[in-house]
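pinning this so it doesn't scroll away 📌
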Amino acid sequence: MRWRDRYGLRRKRGPKIAKFDRDATDADIEALIAFAKSRRGVEFYVEPETFATDTTAMAVADDGEWTRRRVGSPAVIRKVARDLALPVYDVQLTGYPPRMRAYNERQKRAES
């Protein structure tokens, strides 16, 4: 079986820093796309690559529900967001949306 670089994960990655984390896969990108298509008001937030983790993106819906997946590079999630006509933000510049924190608090209260 041959590797298909459908989302440009290898081509757009650039120099790699992360050492301990696994690489992003097509399944990661497809999970973000499925989340975005099944919810309203989704926005993507790009998180930078660190020594321990690859570049990740969070998809946050209008009710605050969220998911995080590896994306390989910011260029990959920008392409996905452009194809889906959704906004993408750099979390270092904008921070996380308040609705995400509110959703997490609601989930904690529901578990209690």
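📌 and the second one:
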Amino acid sequence: MIIPPGPLKVLVAVKPVDFRKGMVGLASLVQSELMRDPFSGIMFVFRCKRADRIKLLLWDGTGLVLVTKRLETGTFRWPRFGDGVMSLTPAQAGALIEGLDWSRVHAPRIARPVMAQ
């Protein structure tokens, strides 16, 4: 998968989606229900009801990329059901995609420097 340059922003759709949807259906869902731009370079993560499969949707600058992953055993750890989206750091998204407990991954908060030294 080609990742756009710069920091990657990852948004997780908290509510399960119909996994019969392809990239056009998921892009439409991003626009109509999540009120976001699917062509912004943000990676959107979706899950099915059973939580054993995820889909990743990303605009890489030349086209939409759709990746599907199914865990052979277990389920993906997911935030509680609700509407809307949840933001993850790239490290947390990597853990989620690997099937790990992403909630245990914390990015250190570093204060922005006031002046270069």
